[in-house]
Amino acid sequence: MTVTSTPDILSKDEATTKVPTKYVKLNVGGALFYTTLGTLTKRADSMLRAMFSGRMDVLTDSDRWVLIDRCGKHFSTILNYLRDGTIHMPDGKTELKELLTECKFYCLEELASEVEEELKKKGDELEPRCRITLVTSQKEEKMLITNSEKPVIKLVCSRYNNKYSYTSQSDDNILKNVELFDKLSLRFNGRILFMKDIITNDEICCWSFYGNGKKVTEVCCTSIVYATDKKQTKVEFHEARIYEETLNTLLYEEGRSDMSLVDQLQMARQKEREEIVNTSEDEGGSSSRRRIHHTPSNE
Predict the structure, then answer these.
(1) What CATH architecture is 133-285?
(2) Which of 259, 269, 286 is nearest to 139 (CA)?
């Protein structure tokens, strides 16, 4: 350990009584801090007090910065707590959890308890999510697109609709397309109706954009290429164009329908069941269709 204008290693008595105003240069995960020994050794039984009272070996660089191998994102909050005994709690659950992890590392039990209480208050807070409709029949798809007063984006993505081998980057690009769909569905939730098509068997990865009940354009991400005298399926990731078409689709935004999407879907399925029964008793055992809630990944 190196402390500005102080010995490299301080005894417990020196740290707690003689040098409360002497400064320490800290490099915490690349974030630089400048504080006093009095602040760092203020809380009994904390990891920082142990580090700066001579009970633990610490690492310094050539510029005399004390290195702490932790993320520096919440270290300023830790220092403010040591100085004043209070902090401004982060708003989000993710940041609270990160702060709790740092509190536990530095053995700041009182602050950790306060953060845990704050997390409990947010226990019922909903994480960001949106509703994605899985289309399981052409009638459902047509009804939803026709009746929706919001623009529609539909993704067909199934790596099994393929009779050739994939190129080396294709699997990664399929995943990138799915991740972008999830990201857009969260960002524009409530403004665009997002649908996943799980019945089409002649497309591998294709985006379709609708406005006013009609297809505006599509972005096909699949092509066939020849390599060493054999055909291969190539899946691409046209991120810029997909973003562009998504923004263009918003030009068709008109507002919310009086009838909810769930009600529309239920009515369509009920009508379809009635048509099947009226047409033929043999067709009454059609496979059940379902709508699921889909929550994409990360906090």
Answers:
(1) 3-Layer(aba) Sandwich (3.40)
(2) 269
